[in-house]
Write a structure and sequence with these properties.
The structure holds 2 protein chains of 2 kinds.
Chain A: E1 12-23, E2 26-37, E3 41-45, H1 52-60, E4 67-72, E5 75-76, H2 82-88, E6 90-93, H3 105-113, H4 121-126, H5 129-150, H6 165-178, E7 183-187, H7 195-210, E8 217-221, H8 225-231, E9 234-239, E10 242-247, H9 249-254, H10 256-263
Parallel strand pairs in A: 3-8, 3-9, 6-7, 7-8
Antiparallel strand pairs in A: 1-2, 1-4, 4-5, 9-10
Helix pairs in contact in A: 3-6, 5-6
Chain B: H1 14-25, E1 30-36, E2 39-44, H2 45-61, E3 69-73, H3 78-89, E4 93-97, H4 103-113, E5 115-120, H5 123-133, E6 141-144, E7 158-160, H6 161-174, H7 178-184, E8 191-197, E9 205-210, H8 211-224, E10 232-234, H9 242-255, E11 258-261, H10 268-275, E12 279-282, H11 284-300, H12 303-324, H13 331-351, E13 359-362, H14 369-377, E14 382-386, E15 396-397, E16 410-411, E17 416-419, E18 424-428, H15 440-446, E19 447-448, E20 451-460, E21 466-471, E22 476-477, E23 483-484, H16 486-493, E24 499-505, E25 512-518, H17 520-529, H18 537-541, H19 544-558, E26 567-572, H20 592-598, H21 600-606, E27 612-620, E28 626-637
Amino acid sequence: MADAKDLRGDETILKIENVHMYFGRVAALAGVNLEVKKGEIHSIIGPNGAGKTVMMNCINGLYKPQKGRITYKGQDITARRPHERASLGISRTFQKIELFGGMTVLDNIRLGRHIHLKSGIVSGSIYVGKTKQEELEARKFIEEEIIDLLEIESIRDHTVHMLPYGLQKRVELGRALALNPDLLLLDEPLAGLNLEEVEDMARFILDINEEERWKVTCILVEHDMGVVMDISNRVFVLNFGNKIMDGTPKEVQTNPEVIKAYLGEEELYATRR
Amino acid sequence: MTVSPIEVTKDLTIPKLFLSQCKRYGTNKVAMREKEFGIWRPYTWQDYYDNVKYLCLGMVGLGLKKGDKVAMIGDNRPEGLWTEMAALCAGGIGVWLFQDCMMDEVKYIIDHSDAKFFVGETQEEVDKALAIKGNCPKLEKIIWDDPKGMRNYPQDFLISVKKVQEMGRWMDKQEPGLFEKLINQGHGDDICLLFYTSGTTALPKGALLSHWNMLTMGKNLMAVDPCYDTDDFVSYLPFAWIGEQMMSISCGLQVGYTLNFPEEPTTAKEDIRQIGPHVMFAPPRLYEGMTRQVQVKYIDSSWIKRKIYEFSTKVGYKVADLKFKKKPVPVTWQILNALASLAMQKKLKDHLGMSRLRHAYTGGAAMGPDHFRFFHALGVNLKQIYGQTEIAGISIVHRDGDVKFDTVGTPIPETEIRITEEGEILSKSPSVFQGYYKNEEATKKTLVDGWLYSGDRGFIDEDGHLVVFDRSKDVMTLKDGRPFSPQYLETRLKFSPFIQEAWVIGDKRPYIAAVMCIDYAVVGKWADERKINYTSYQELCQKPEVYDLVQKQIEESNEDLPEPARIHRFVNLYKVFDADDEELTRTSKLRRAFVENRYKDIVSGLYSEADVVHMDTTITYEDGREQRIRLDLRIRKVHL
């Protein structure tokens, strides 16, 4: 596999400023600041309960932070609802798979595209002119860019809940990509996968990030330190709602505080490689 | 339309034939289809011509000369065939590698064949080529066609198919008519393919085949079973297998039928169903897979469906057996058969992609009589092909209406068969190969006065059909002194859906024993239904219940055999035989000498009083990781 290349520009795509998120009296996030540059893979690591998923939920709008500001491409999105953020180009996958189990792989992925379809019920039912054009384009995009990239040709008509877990994870990534995002939030995409699947998934993430066609900025929450340190441009370390540090993989690996808080638990989070 | 009136002369080459077929059909006919992005995309003969022409000229521009070897690896796809045709048009020689070749096999073949160009499909193949390039100094260029993952490869000897074709276009402008000129320089006696045979004992040997060999083989097969240019064929088996070359190139080009390429190897089954080919040629394991699939689905289906299936197969078998015996089918049975066809066979054939099938061939290894009868009971015209790579793939085939499931048929035109005193099968035809590349010694042994020594033992029966007993070196001697074929017993055992592989031992031993590999998916499902817990293949295969199951299959197979030929003891192996572990050849033939050495502890266990054999071994995964396996394998005695 090719080494992670530095594709970052200077342009900031996402800025989180002093975000506070409380559940009752528990501070899940206590004044977190994060700046994500366009084109990078920015990982968020931390022990269980550190607030990683809460941070993801704040970014895509599932949670509304009590305090603080989130700016995406220069505009304040703190008050925006999740679907509005989605149409701005923020897409995500979930730690626990959130697919529609009874639907086929293709239908699940198509759903991710729905937000970009403009045709209404009437023109959709007669399928002429612009609607037809739009459908053809959507189909082309899904087949040529997503199914081909993720190598899921053989399962496109399979029902999702019949698929093995590793493939479901892939389908979920496919659905997130159907939105054609600029910013992709990946919440533990490697959890529960076997070695081969981990390698495939890491390759897909790199492809999405580096390939001229995609160039998607990724925020990655992940426990597999081998992969995180391999593919990330920057790593943000979180512990009990507080930022410990934000730096390059190398800096993070040598920071004593990080080692104490997180990497110290070697056995718990031992890398698979 | 009728069979093409092409006359195969010594002057004709594959590229010349290609050129005339392209001129003949032009844009009016689809030469090939590929399923891509979920849609079947057609390429006319004109597209085929253009792609081959520019690829050929591009490779010539890169330095390909007459007689140079072009190594190719990748899934079945139009680009694969274009490359091969382009290499041949330039006077080059094609060398195909199996997609799943391990690194040292790739290195051996590239180095031994003196390949100058390497054409791979994806990043994976390019990585293989890069890894060996340092050790293969004659390799000059690496060509790839799928850009996925190729963004970080700056090496200047790497070039894409598109780039090569662009060069070809430029070359064509510089020197119009060059392509035709190159083709016209060829002669039928020129070598076109260097085919590495999967050795069951030694390193692969490279068989040299000429244009004349390939074209006469195609002509003679088509004389027996004509195909039409309106036919469809699905190309999904490795191009590195002679059978695929036979259908896609030799026959395909002469007849002009449409080749169809599946989207991915994993979608082949569904894609075949969509096309519904008219002709099919596959090694036995694919048919065995289909039989297993049907048997498993049968177990899974509802009571009423099972009853219909049972009724229909009963009728099917009865009618098939009458036909095998060349007896007339009584009217009642004809009516019942029509009913069975309507109720079940038609549907099943549709699911297997066989609804339009006129001829299905199997070859490359032995197929058990049970599988054979199974397909005939379905109304599928399955026929044996016998031949070797060294005779361009085929010398013997069953004729329509004269199929016997224990024979391989009668010689195709222009082919003679002889049996030596020792029982070895010899054959002679215009398709007999030109010798092994850089291996005088092996050539001398195999090719004597134009006769090809097959190393197979067999005889000709009362109807003039050839019966292939087994490989001469595999034929074993029973305790009563009679010869027996382990392969025969193995194919019988493999008719059970629960058994994926079997290895029968017993040469000059007091009794016959077997090493069995269960089918993980089928036995796993069987175990699930019985609430038998297991976490791995190793654990599942050692369950007493699974032993009972396997024992039952063996006892059924033993039933109608004489006592000395019955299996007495068996063991379930902790893994399935695998070509990557060198236990099978790339065409899935068991490498007996190798497994005998590797599992000598098990073999000695089978011939002792022990109930258990202790295994302590290390297995190496493809990525280099090693795992130590320590476990006890039970040995079970069969009730005789």
